[in-house]
Amino acid sequence: MTTDPRYYAVTEATWPPAATWQLGPVTLRKGLGGGSRVSAATVDGAASEADIAAAEAEMRAMGQACLFMIRDGQTTLDAQLAARGYTVKDPVNLWVCTVTQLTDRPVPPVTAFCVWEPLAIQREIWAQGGIGPERLAVMERVAGPKTALLARHRDKPAGAGFAAIHDGVAMVHALEILPHQRRAGMGAWMMRQAAFWALENGATEMAVLCTKRNAGANGLYASLGMALSGEYHYRILQEGD
After folding, report:
1. Is 89 helix (H, G, I), strand (E, B) or coil?
2. CA 8, CA 16: separation in Å to the nearest integer?
3. pLDDT digits (tens, 9 = 90+) for 48-66
4. In this structure, are residues 210 and 93 in contact, taking their beta carbons and an 8 Å threshold?
5. What does the alpha-carbon distance between residue 107 and residue 62 come to, in Å, rounded to a whole number?
6. 1 assigned to some structural domain
7. CATH code where residue 157 lies
8. Which residues have a Cβ under 8 Å from the Cβ of 82 and sit 6 or more positions away?
9. pLDDT tens-digit map of 29-42
10. CA 127 to mean position of chain CA atoms
11. Which terminal Cβ of the chain has fewer Cβ within 10 Å, N or C?
12. What is d(CA 210, CA 217) in angstroms, rounded to the nearest whole number?
């Protein structure tokens, strides 16, 4: 499986780091606590041991873990980092479909909504799922079209999510369903609501990232007819105190 590189650009634009800069072949990211996607370094081409060591020094200077994203085909980099003591972290699946794949049926009334800025209840739902102020700051940084998703079930809040568009692709992030509202189809309705919003804002594709260990979410995206279209993983260096 080979990931179309444009989806990496979509991820970067729809879930952006606070800052990026080049150090030789390495792109460094300042995440400010916003998670792996906005903190991981990436490598274009080949990186020498000196390049990796210099990147490690920069990440430590930022107060971040030494963390690299390993993209499709980067077997040499993967082996280099493994030899330096890096361990695999959070293998991720990329799911993609056309927008119209998810707009084939209307969302039932008062089931899912799009709103920006996020409401207090959406922030509360995210907080319960471990999505705190640092990740909300990532959402705020997005420059293109974006929206927050809110789901309701049995007249009660059920879930929250975030979607943004880049290069014709709407990517969904931070999809969180309250534990007592799960297994009621809320995730599917939120994805469909995001698709209707995406269609109105000129997108032609939907995309979402999901850790491989999240069997429930991966099952949801497969059930919606989304195609497994790529993958990546991280390597992190566990260092002593």
Report:
1. strand
2. 11
3. 999 999 999 999 999 999 9
4. yes
5. 44
6. no
7. 3.40.630.30
8. 235
9. 999 999 999 999 99
10. 17
11. C
12. 7
